[in-house]
Design goal:
single chain, about 240 residues, alpha/beta, 7 helices, about 30% helix, about 25% strand, Cyt_trans-like, FAD synthase, EC 2.7.7.2, FAD, flavoprotein
Length: about 240
């Protein structure tokens, strides 16, 4: 059972796709293999748009595991992969490598050179290669693009509703300042209610992306962003 997609953020729509694959796999006594891409394909091919990671790749893998994936295959997305024809990609990855008996995708999934492959083509390939295809309807209003917009606007409650959990950042504390790692999707500068190690506290985000917290020892940290403090002043 193969689940195919970018899954950048593992929001509620992604979780629903995984849940469908899990149910099919349990009925057929098959494992679920989630196939994803890194970096986001749009950073290599396609129109220029915001592809800032909502979670790190490591967290994407953890969330996939937590939501029903037995195995995760990360395909490095580069110009060589972007140039592969959709039929060639499907046969090499789904048929020859994974021996897929069923493939689950979102109904808007695109693949292959120039994004020319879609669910209709995948159905055609599946009939020839003897795997079934399940195109899952999208969850209305739930997309990674919308999650990014809400976070950048500062609507952390709205983002949490789509994600199914609060948004968080990871980084290192040095002298009370958190330097986020490569995962840098931040809300606007200001003061925020946050949770660190299950304890509520307050953090301040500077315009340059530096995050200030009080009374934190130096070292790695995960900050769960809850909501913006009203009337907080941007610097």
């Amino acid at each position: 059972m193969v689940v195919l997609g970018v899954f950048d953020g593992l929001h509620r729509g992604h979780v629903r796709v995984l849940a469908h694959a899990r149910a099919l796999a349990d009925a057929r006594r098959r494992p679920v293999v989630l196939v994803t891409f890194d970096p986001h394909p749009a950073t290599v091919a396609g129109p220029d748009r915001d592809t800032t990671p909502i979670v790190s790749l490591a967290e994407r893998v953890r969330l996939a595991d937590r939501n029903g994936a037995d195995h995760i295959l990360v395909l490095p997305f580069d110009r060589c992969l972007a140039a592969v024809e959709p039929e060639q990609f499907a046969h090499h990855v789904l048929v020859e490598t994974l021996h897929a008996t069923a493939v689950v995708v979102g109904e808007n999934f695109r693949f292959g050179r120039g994004g020319t492959g879609d669910v209709t083509l995948l159905h055609q390939i599946g009939r020839e290669a003897r795997f079934t295809v399940h195109g899952m309807p999208l969850l209305t209003g739930c997309s990674s693009t919308q999650v990014r917009k809400l976070i950048r606007f500062g609507d952390l409650s709205g983002a949490a509703c789509l994600l199914g959990r609060p948004h968080h950042i990871e980084g290192w504390v040095v002298d009370g300042r958190i330097h986020p790692d490569s995962h840098r999707l931040l809300p606007p500068s200001g003061r925020y209610h946050v949770h660190i190690d299950d304890h509520p506290t307050v953090a301040e985000i500077e315009p340059d992306g530096t995050v200030h917290v009080a009374d934190r020892p130096d070292g790695p940290v995960t900050v769960w962003l809850v909501r913006r403090i009203e009337n907080s002043t941007r610097r």
